[in-house]
Design a protein that fits this description.
Blueprint (H helix, E strand, L loop, with lengths): L2 H13 L4 H7 L6 H13 L1 H10 L4 H17 L13 H19 L16 H11 L6 H27 L3 H7 L12 H8 L3 H24 L8 H14 L1
Length: about 250
């Protein structure tokens, strides 16, 4: 390996430190409180794609809520992670595979009393979930496709939340409220004159502000996806796959 290759590896290590998911995968060898906290954070962030998978599999809203909640209970308490394949370590793949196994085996053995003993590990807003599920128009798609689409949309939501939090922390919440619609608009569709007027900027400055916003969004989106992978080597492939899934939605 030449000097330039070593430099590239060092640069990637700086840009992609150990992700939440890689920390959790490492815990299969040595459990730690940090890994437990990372896994619970992951569950809180990504519960909706799993809920949508269960709903598309034919379960009613109440049963989907119970099944999703109980799945997370097993995941957190029974150390299902110990069976994770570190060579196929995408969080997306692991979670949906584990959920399918759970639905095939555990549901048939579920007792009639309320699952999980009423103890909630991962809070879920079922009313929100049902309104989103109905609005997504995914009822004719295979459950696996629904899951992947909702996974990609969840990553976009998390990225937007992080970007908004940065603006709020900088005292620029109002600026974000004006600029946020520019994240999803095509370049030619952005009314820079209107943006400039609302921000009290020149049109040139407004263009710069939009460019910086979109650039930062892309950076954060890459970081969010990286959080679901065991290492940075799979990032470009995952970006390409998720872009294709979003294009089909």
């Amino acid at each position: 390996m030449g000097d330039s290759d070593h430099s590239t590896v060092r640069a990637q290590a700086q840009v992609f430190p150990h992700t939440r998911w890689s920390v959790v995968l490492a815990a299969t060898q040595r459990p730690s409180p940090e890994a437990d906290a990372a896994l619970e954070t992951i569950c809180r962030a990504y519960w909706y794609p799993l809920y949508a998978f269960v709903r598309r599999s034919g379960q009613s809203p109440p049963d989907a809520q119970d099944l999703t909640q109980e799945f997370f209970r097993h995941l957190l308490e029974k150390r299902w992670l110990d069976s994770a394949d570190r060579n196929k370590g995408r969080l997306r793949t692991f979670l949906v595979t584990a959920l399918k196994h759970y639905l095939a085996k555990e549901w048939r053995r579920a007792s009639a009393h309320k699952r999980g003993g009423g103890h909630t590990h991962v809070p879920m807003d079922t009313a929100f979930a049902e309104s989103r599920y109905a609005a997504d128009g995914t009822t004719q798609l295979p459950a696996e496709t629904v899951f992947d689409q909702q996974w990609a949309l969840t990553l976009l939501d998390l990225t937007t939340q992080r970007l908004e939090a940065e603006f709020v922390a900088a005292g620029k919440a109002g600026e974000f409220a004006i600029l946020k619609n520019c994240l999803v608009a095509a370049h030619r569709a952005i009314d820079y004159a209107s943006v400039a007027s609302r921000l009290d900027l020149s049109e040139g400055a407004a263009r710069v502000a939009v460019h910086r916003l979109r650039k930062r969004f892309r950076e954060l989106y890459r970081e969010e996806i990286a959080q679901t992978l065991p290492n940075s080597a799979e990032l470009d492939a995952e970006l390409h796959y998720l872009a294709g899934i979003l294009a089909r939605s």
